[in-house]
């Protein structure tokens, strides 16, 4: 089954990331919450229970042995040119990448974020509500990883009261900024709430994004235009355009929450939204949520 992990690298990476960002200490409480997180991601990606359980055992029984960035440096320093590596070595590389990613979250110009919150040179204690609070504060900077994690924790009620509406908001913010994992999570949350049509919509959007987003394509093939619903194609058009014309073009890697709120206003049609996306730098979209000419209506996400 290890080969199946590599085939599903994105999902497995996020299982490792979403559990490790909570703590690098293997307490009973951490293991219990980590299993819930892994199970959620497995269901969001529609994995079999058997495969999800296998991923869980790899993460919590094997990869947990590499828990500090100092451990990572020791492992890498022992490797020599010409060594033969196996599948477990590759899995430990994934854990090493995750540790480096988490460490980098703390390197922020936002004065509200403490670098120590994500310093994995030592073991972190685990208290779910405290960890949620720290990640939630970090998400205010627009950091994709923190914002997605808040959405996931809200959906599960880990470290906070379970709140599907807030989970949907945070995951939608990530999805519109081009985060494919959040699209899967969002679809699953809608499924949990019984909103089957929206669940199917975001499962379709996640499939389209997996096919096209990394290649920078905003135009679908003729076959996919027929295979996917009009709503899915429309949402993918928003997402891919934001990815290309805002995130990449303006190097806006952190989510611009104000912009997302504005373009999802129910006051806008497709063409107006695309106009604001294509002309992001003009910032005319700010008049939607913070009008300097007239009071604006309260808006939110569709």
Q: What's the quick description here?
A:
By secondary structure, this protein is mainly α.
Describe the protein in words.
This protein has 302 residues and is mostly helical. The chain is 63% helix and 0% strand. It has 16 helices and no strands. It has helices at 2-7, 9-20, 28-44, 49-62, 69-78, 87-105, 128-139, 144-156, 164-176, 180-192, 196-212, 222-227, 230-248, 257-263, 270-278, 286-289. The longest helix is centred in the N-terminal third of the chain and has 19 residues, at 87-105. Mean pLDDT is 91; it is low at 295-302.
Instruction: Please count the beta strands (DSSP E, at least 2 residues each).
Output: 0
* Class based on secondary structure composition and strand pairing: mainly alpha
Oligomeric state of the chains present here: single chain
Low-confidence blocks of residues: 295-302
What's the order of the H and E elements?
HHHHHHHHHHHHHHHH
Q: How many helices in DSSP terms? A: 16
| Helicity level | 55-70%
What is the CA–CA distance across the termini? 39 Å
Radius of gyration: 20 Å
Q: Which percent band covers the strand fraction?
A: under 5%
Instruction: Characterize the overall form.
Output: globular
User: Please, what is the average pLDDT?
Assistant: 91
What profile does the largest beta sheet have? none
């Amino acid at each position: 089954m290890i080969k199946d992990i590599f085939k599903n690298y994105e999902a497995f990476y996020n299982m490792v990331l979403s559990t490790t960002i909570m703590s690098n200490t293997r307490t009973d409480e951490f293991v219990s919450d980590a299993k819930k997180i892994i199970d959620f991601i497995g269901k969001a990606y529609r994995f079999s229970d058997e495969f999800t359980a296998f991923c869980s055992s790899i993460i919590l029984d094997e990869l947990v042995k590499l828990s500090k960035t100092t451990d990572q440096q020791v492992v890498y320093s022992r490797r020599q040119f010409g060594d033969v590596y196996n599948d477990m070595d590759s899995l430990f590389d994934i854990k090493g990448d995750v540790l480096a990613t988490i460490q980098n979250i703390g390197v922020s110009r936002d004065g509200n974020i403490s670098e120590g919150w994500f310093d994995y040179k030592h073991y972190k204690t685990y208290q779910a509500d405290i960890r949620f609070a720290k990640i939630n504060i970090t998400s205010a900077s627009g950091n994709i990883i923190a914002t997605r994690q808040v959405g996931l924790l809200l959906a599960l009620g880990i470290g906070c009261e379970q709140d599907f509406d807030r989970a949907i908001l945070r995951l939608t913010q990530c999805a519109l900024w081009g985060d494919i994992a959040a699209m899967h999570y969002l679809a699953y949350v809608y499924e949990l709430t019984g909103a089957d049509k929206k669940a199917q919509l975001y499962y379709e959007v996640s499939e389209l994004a997996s096919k096209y987003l990394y290649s920078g394509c905003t135009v679908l093939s003729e076959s996919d235009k027929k295979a996917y619903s009009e709503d899915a194609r429309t949402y993918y058009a928003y997402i891919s355009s934001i990815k290309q014309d805002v995130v990449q073009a303006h190097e806006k890697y952190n989510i611009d929450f104000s912009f997302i709120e504005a373009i999802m206003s129910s006051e806008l049609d497709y063409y107006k939204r695309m106009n604001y996306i294509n002309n992001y730098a003009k910032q005319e979209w700010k008049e939607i949520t913070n009008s300097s000419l007239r009071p604006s209506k309260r808006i939110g996400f569709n």
